[in-house]
Q: What sequence folds into this?
């Protein structure tokens, strides 16, 4: 991900649905960048419990409990609450209020054409039984982003239509009140577009696919995960030539091993034969143990005092509301529906 | 409208979209009953500015300005703020918050099947360009009603699907949290189902049709309106037999003239011929002047001190929010998304 485009004038909004603790895929795909970006500009981190409810209405205990879990992951990984504002979405009433006004600016057919929504509907098998809250969530996202006057939103390439929808709402609102109240944003898309694959070799690491390694994983979990890791199914004997492409161990080494020369040498050796899976797995395991040990230790320490962590979220939410209240007030003033 | 079914245990929610001052049709169709019902049970009167915006996004000045106008109509007609709680919808943030949660309980196809929405889409010529806020407004209404734990909602027969939608949301929510948090409501439908026709004989009196007589109409406006009133187009000479059915003057006399025997006599005379339009119009005009003169006087008096009226709305809104905040808190507690 390029951070060069982001300047101190930018405001970032990003976050996670609180449906499970974060894993190594989140660390590589977003957390690492947030940790860098919090030194560049203002950054709001949304614990999206309300959005998670849009398709977890029967499962709200999970959604609530993971607010703390995700917060622990953030803090343990290196998010600094003095630099990044972490807040709980359901405690910011300005967001649904903006959402309800923005709904008037987006037609039903426009929502139905949203490619991300189309894909998700297929993926989740909703067909015509899509909850309205799910269908309208691009508008809720427009509320989240514009409430903070965010200029930068880190997203995957598949989420670009959501950014376009937000900017459409921004432009339509500004045009309808003939004032520049809301601010357009731009997507910050990872440069290589790569996601960390699951330990089973599947393209995406995901808790629900059972192929993930959480940030709070124990030393034993890490050992087990690396042992189970997908390599080259045709590499049966150490002497055999092995394939590096699609071999999860090498994909991970490319990402986590800072000694790139050594990794290139291992790849060459593996390709020509004579290098066993055990050797490369041992190397990767050591790297992952080193990476995750301090995160796990901080996470355990933080988890021992949940009230302290909730206090951070409370303060973050208060700070977030200062901004959202100011935006909502400006929106309502521009619409002329301010009475007192 | 039967008020017998309403008891002191009931809670009524009703109100008006703030798109124009109220007229005689509102007086007959709803205001008179509210004035009676405010002595029977708790009654909340919603000045629906936010809902009016769902299809007036480019016209928000009208929506805002009519908040005061409708409030003046309420108070002038006899709504007593000590008995009825008058409040401004856009100042109750709990309503969009409940709305955003309820959206998860209603599918898109369910909204598309709503007969009232279907009719309105035809009427307004929206086709597929329906604003999402319009499509989802049955859910917003469910939020309005259930936020007050209203048990009675006065509606026209065509609005019954909206009540059914509200009760579906109530049942679905209660089932999803396995607690009886929200309360079902029932429709209070006018007994005769009759609407006051426009002065032009069209079925519905409506400001946009230009066939209405506002509650604040001047004496001259009333004279002019009665003069223009549709009678029997074939009743050309006084001596001719005239038709009473569809004759707006008689329809109005049936509603506003308390001397029913005299009205029956006039009808018989008109039917056999020899009774001119001038005579029946003069009688109706006198009745309407007598009815509207004190309302107009009170309205002018109140309009001279808009700050006093806005103070009533402010107090009403504060009182309304006590109830909506309690309901939202119960809803969030039941969903388990309460953190502090």
A:
């Amino acid at each position: 991900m390029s951070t060069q485009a982001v300047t101190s004038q930018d405001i970032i909004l990003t976050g996670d649905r609180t449906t499970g603790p974060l894993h190594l895929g989140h660390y590589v795909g977003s957390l690492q960048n947030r940790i860098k970006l919090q030194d560049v500009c203002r950054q709001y981190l949304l614990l999206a419990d309300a959005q998670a409810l849009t398709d977890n209405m029967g499962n709200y205990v999970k959604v609530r409990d993971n607010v703390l879990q995700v917060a622990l992951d953030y803090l343990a990984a290196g998010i600094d609450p003095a630099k990044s504002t972490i807040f709980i979405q359901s405690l910011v009433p300005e967001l649904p209020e903006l959402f309800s006004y923005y709904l008037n600016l987006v037609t039903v057919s426009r929502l139905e054409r949203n490619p991300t929504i189309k894909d998700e509907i297929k993926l989740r098998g909703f067909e015509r039984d899509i909850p309205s809250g799910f269908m309208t969530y691009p508008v809720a996202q427009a509320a989240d982003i514009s409430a903070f006057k965010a200029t930068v939103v880190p997203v995957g390439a598949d989420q670009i239509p959501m950014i376009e929808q937000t900017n459409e709402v921004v432009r339509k609102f500004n045009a309808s009140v003939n004032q520049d109240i809301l601010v357009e944003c731009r997507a910050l898309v990872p440069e290589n577009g790569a996601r960390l694959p699951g330990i089973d070799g599947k393209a995406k690491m995901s808790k629900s696919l059972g192929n993930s390694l959480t940030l709070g994983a124990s030393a034993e979990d890490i050992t087990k995960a690396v042992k189970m890791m997908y390599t080259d199914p045709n590499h049966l004997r150490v002497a055999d030539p092995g394939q590096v492409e699609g071999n999860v161990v090498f994909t991970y080494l490319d990402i986590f091993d800072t000694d790139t020369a050594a990794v290139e040498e291992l790849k060459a050796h593996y390709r020509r034969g004579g290098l066993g899976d055990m050797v490369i797995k041992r190397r990767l395991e050591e790297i992952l143990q080193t990476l995750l040990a301090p995160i796990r230790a901080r996470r355990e320490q933080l988890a021992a005092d949940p009230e302290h962590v909730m206090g951070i979220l409370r303060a973050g939410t208060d700070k977030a509301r200062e901004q959202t209240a100011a935006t909502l007030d400006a929106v309502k003033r521009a619409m002329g529906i301010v009475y007192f």
